[in-house]
């Protein structure tokens, strides 16, 4: 959940490390630090609670020389966010410094054992235990740093991406990973290290993604070497990055979140491109077609995901059951991994994750693999862990998403799920040709309809002023729009810190209606669909109790305006594709309310973009 940056080469390391940390700020963090080896082979650690800018101010009067270093932004797990718990951490002798993403689950046992050997600890973190263990192994086995890391990690239970440097050894970084992402960038006589590609793309497009239990020996003026814990050398699989620096900049927008909301018409085009034939009559999703026997004979589909991706999965459940007539279950990956689930070889498990590194979803994939199920991944980040762990899949191709609150990744996931359902439905003969072609035409019109909705920004900004100081919100939807209600509530919670809940509209009278009064804003999704009349009845129940209703309706609907306090009109879209359009005004409303409350919408408190711990 934190950010790792490393550099070794011919340039000053500190400016590269600081710029890299700024690039990784979107991941979420509460402290930052660097470790450098200067020209006198001295190892210096500089770290502080707060933002990268706080670290820069702290380091202004310090020695930041050297052409090798590692840096980190920490999201607190073990120990509160403060200076002493910030990374990097020294070993006891201060000969080693480490940065670490992940969690060492058996740190308490290891710490007790090390204390008995005379080691003392300066922090509350599991990470300091790891660097002390590495030093203990190095001292007792009289081995080099790489061997010490290999041996120490064999005693560790948990998830980690680490980088270690050593006083007096200015030509070497040792890095390793298990269940937490780590990528090495290969430049000209220099190497870069990071938890994702965003700090690297400015310098090189050639990268190597470490696999679980691999150790990278990153040595000055020598080729990159990858070994496992038994010191068996592994082949280098060099990948080419497809992102660009321009994708990582705000492009004139005040926040990444707003930029990413406005990018959605283009990102949906990118998501569809090459997957609908030039005639616009057929969906060609190779990840399905290359394994069509699996989908033709699937007994059940299980979707595993977390957060926003789980909401996309709920929409996928509607799409697949509606168009393919295959039973679908949608599971929180964090629950699925612990409840001894029943998974059979004729099941298909779809794992959805924006980052492709979500720890709980990766664990769910491993459970499904061991049970013999076919696994299909839907991810955004090319080369991330979930695509490498699955049998097949589809990238959503929406470009880097920097804002912590997911927007374009959500609509990209739903778009891929729609194309997947259309592809499977045609293969199985469960969708009528006329409906199949109608939905393909509708899908291609979505970007233009999104542009129409983005034109409502002034109306939504004005509406947000009315509700900026509300303490609670309820979001209601039915059918395909129920997951959109959940997602709308999540967006508001994430970035404005207002309590909000999403409900199926009909469930109001089973308890939540007790909350309704004239101070309770209710966002009701009442677009024209198969449950429209039922939704209208639910709105009337709320108005009878003096609730304040903001209704999202289809263009030209004047009936709801007579009962709602505020109405937002959106274009007519087929019911099963409506989530792609109706989610945008909810994203914008959350954004403007958060801005009015002076929130940091790109980096909301306590949240991280890539959740690589449980």
Overview of this structure, please?
- It is a single chain.
- With 614 residues, the chain is an alpha/beta fold.
- It folds into 3 domains: 3-246, Aminohydrolase, N-terminal nucleophile (Ntn) domain (Glutamine Phosphoribosylpyrophosphate, subunit 1, domain 1); 250-453, Glucose-6-phosphate isomerase like protein, domain 1 (Rossmann fold, 3-Layer(aba) Sandwich), CATH 3.40.50; 455-597, 3-Layer(aba) Sandwich (Rossmann fold), CATH 3.40.50.10490.
- Helices cover 36% and strands 23% of the residues.
- The chain is built from 19 helices and 25 strands.
- The strands form 4 sheets. Strands 3-2-4-1-10-9-11-15 form an 8-stranded antiparallel sheet, covered by helices on one side.
- Helix 4 packs across helix 5.
- It is globular.
- The chain starts with a strand and ends in an 18-residue tail after the last helix.
């Amino acid at each position: 959940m934190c950010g790792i940056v490393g550099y070794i080469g011919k340039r000053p390391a500190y400016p590269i490390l600081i710029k890299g940390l700024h690039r990784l700020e979107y991941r979420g963090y509460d402290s930052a630090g660097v470790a450098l080896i200067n020209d006198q082979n001295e190892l210096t650690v500089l770290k502080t609670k707060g933002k990268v800018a706080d670290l820069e101010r702290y380091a202004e009067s310090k020695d930041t020389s050297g052409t090798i270093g590692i840096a980190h932004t920490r999201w607190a797990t073990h120990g509160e966010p403060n200076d002493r718990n910030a990374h990097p951490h020294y070993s006891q002798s201060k000969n080693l410094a480490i940065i670490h993403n992940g969690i060492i689950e058996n740190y308490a046992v290891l710490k007790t054992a090390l204390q008995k050997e005379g080691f003392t600890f300066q922090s509350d973190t599991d990470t300091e235990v790891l660097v002390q263990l590495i030093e203990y192994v190095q001292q007792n086995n009289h081995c080099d740093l790489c061997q010490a890391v290999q041996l120490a990690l064999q005693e560790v239970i948990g998830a980690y991406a680490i980088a270690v440097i050593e006083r007096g050894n200015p030509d070497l970084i040792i890095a390793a990973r298990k269940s937490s992402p780590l990528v090495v960038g290969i430049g000209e006589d220099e190497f870069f290290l990071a938890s994702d590609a965003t700090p690297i793309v400015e310098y090189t497009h050639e990268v190597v993604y470490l696999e679980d239990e691999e150790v990278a020996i990153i040595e000055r003026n020598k080729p990159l070497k990858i070994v496992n814990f038994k010191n068996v050398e592994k082949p280098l699989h060099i990948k080419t990055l497809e992102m660009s620096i321009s994708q990582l900049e705000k492009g004139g927008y005040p926040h990444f979140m707003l930029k990413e909301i406005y990018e959605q018409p283009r990102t949906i085009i990118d998501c569809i491109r090459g997957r609908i034939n030039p005639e616009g009559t057929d969906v060609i999703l190779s990840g399905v077609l290359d394994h069509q026997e699996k989908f033709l004979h699937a007994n059940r589909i299980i979707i595993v995901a977390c957060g926003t991706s789980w909401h996309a999965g709920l929409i996928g459940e509607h799409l697949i059951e509606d168009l393919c007539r295959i039973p679908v279950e949608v599971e929180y990956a964090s629950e699925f991994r612990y409840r001894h689930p029943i998974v059979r070889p004729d099941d298909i498990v779809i794992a959805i994750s924006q980052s492709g590194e979500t720890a709980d979803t990766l664990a769910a994939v491993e459970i499904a693999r061991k049970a013999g199920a076919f696994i299909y991944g839907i991810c955004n980040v090319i080369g991330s862990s979930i695509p490498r762990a699955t049998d097949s899949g589809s990238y959503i191709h929406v470009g880097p998403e920097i804002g912590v609150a997911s927007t374009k990744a959500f609509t990209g996931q739903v778009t891929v799920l729609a194309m997947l359902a259309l592809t499977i439905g045609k293969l199985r003969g469960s969708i009528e040709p006329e409906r199949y072609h109608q939905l393909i035409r509708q899908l291609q019109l979505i970007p233009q309809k999104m542009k129409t909705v983005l034109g409502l920004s002034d109306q939504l900004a004005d509406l947000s002023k009315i509700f900026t100081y509300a303490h609670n919100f309820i979001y209601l939807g039915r059918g395909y729009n129920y997951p959109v209600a959940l997602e709308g509530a999540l967006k508001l919670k994430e970035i404005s810190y207002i309590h909000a809940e999403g409900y199926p509209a009909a469930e109001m009278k089973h308890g939540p209606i007790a909350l309704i009064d004239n101070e309770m804003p209710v966002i009701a999704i009442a677009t024209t669909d198969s449950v429209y009349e039922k939704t209208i009845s639910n709105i009337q129940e709320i108005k009878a109790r003096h609730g304040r209703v903001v209704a999202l309706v289809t263009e030209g609907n004047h009936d709801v305006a007579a009962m709602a306090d505020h109405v937002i009109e959106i274009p007519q879209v087929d019911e099963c594709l409506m989530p792609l359009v109706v989610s945008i005004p909810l994203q914008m409303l959350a954004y403007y309310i958060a801005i009015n409350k002076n929130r940091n919408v790109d980096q909301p408190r306590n949240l991280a973009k890539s959740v690589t711990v449980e």
